[in-house]
Amino acid sequence: MDFKTLKLTPKPNQFLVAPDGYCQNAKPHQMSKVYEVAVEVLHEAFRNVATRQPRVTMTDDRSDGVQFVQKSKLIGFPDFIDAQFLSMAAKQSTLLIYSRSKYGRSDFGVNANRIRAWLAELDSELAKASD
User: What is the dihedral of CA 50, 56, 59, 65, to 10 degrees?
Assistant: First the structure.
């Protein structure tokens, strides 16, 4: 996935987190924060958070990003979650996340709620790692 050229669809069943100005064709729903950790630490911590979630399968793991599929509880509809990790300095990094539903138009906030929960858990994961 190329976050720089990503274009959001008109559907509300998606959620984008990105640094201000990074995506040329899309306005993020939430700005990504800067983490005071090396990019490899951020990558591993995010992967750990995502793989602990129910019904999540990792479908791709590259040096700069990951992709997951999470299926809905009742019907098993797939949602796709892509994340990319950016190094900003030796011990400073950030991430981009794009979560979207494969089917339907509205997701009742599922993608936004998912990513906000994962980011909160990521903060906890990184806080534990620095202790």
Answer: -20
Name the residue with tokens 């987190």. Answer: 17
Q: Give the model confidence (pLDDT) of 31-76 as tens digits.
A: 999 999 999 999 999 999 999 999 999 999 999 999 999 999 888 9
Domain 12-130 -> CATH class = alpha beta
The angle at the Cα of 67, spanning 95 to 76, to the nearest 5 degrees, equals 125
Q: Do residues 17 and 6 touch, judged by C-beta distance below 8 A?
A: no
Of 69, 72, 67, the closest CA to residue 56 belongs to: 69
For the chain, the domains span 12-130
